[in-house]
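Pinned message: reference record for N-acetyltransferase domain-containing protein
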Amino acid sequence: MHYQLSEVSISDAEALVRQCQFPAMRQDPLRKIMFPKSNGEKEEEEEEEEIKWTIEGLEESLENKSCYFRQVTYGSDCVGFAVWTLEPSGDRATRRQKSKPTPLKKRESWNPAGLDVEAWNQVSMRLREERQRVLLLDQQKIWRLNTISVAPEHQGNGVGSMLVRWGCDMADKDVLNCFVMASPGGLALYDKFDFLVTGETKKADGVCWIAVVD
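Predicted structure (tokens):
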């Protein structure tokens, strides 16, 4: 069998989360901030609630026409996926930045019991500010990698590279740059595609994300 790159439909959301995103995020620094009890103290019921909440969020993104999804399958299993968006030009980012930023509010109908909403909003705001800073540096549209997840047992096999290469190819076709807010552990992947570090966002506890532009 070989890895195959393909499009994603809304019916794939549950498999993407259960087979890729949730297993890959167990040690993710952002998840540890959002869900402080994600270090093994969580009950099975709470974990299932978090999974369902994540699935709903992914379904919302799949309905968003500005999001470009790609998945990698191995046989019948989904082993990785990525979400790319084509961000607006720098002048539009400037107009957005002049307006007073507001905390991100997602799926207000319900949140998992273990979600630290305040911490989530604080981190989201800081990441958004750094994203806007990068957009201001580039006075044209830019392809941004929003999300990338690879099932742990398939990491190191080129799955992540397939997903990043797709976005880079789209950017090359449009003669545009690429951008991602990466954790330090992800820099090796983006270095393969000649991304350059342009900034850094840190939290008081030492957790950081790095702005990387191709």
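Pinned by admin. Summary line: The longest strand covers residues 77-87.
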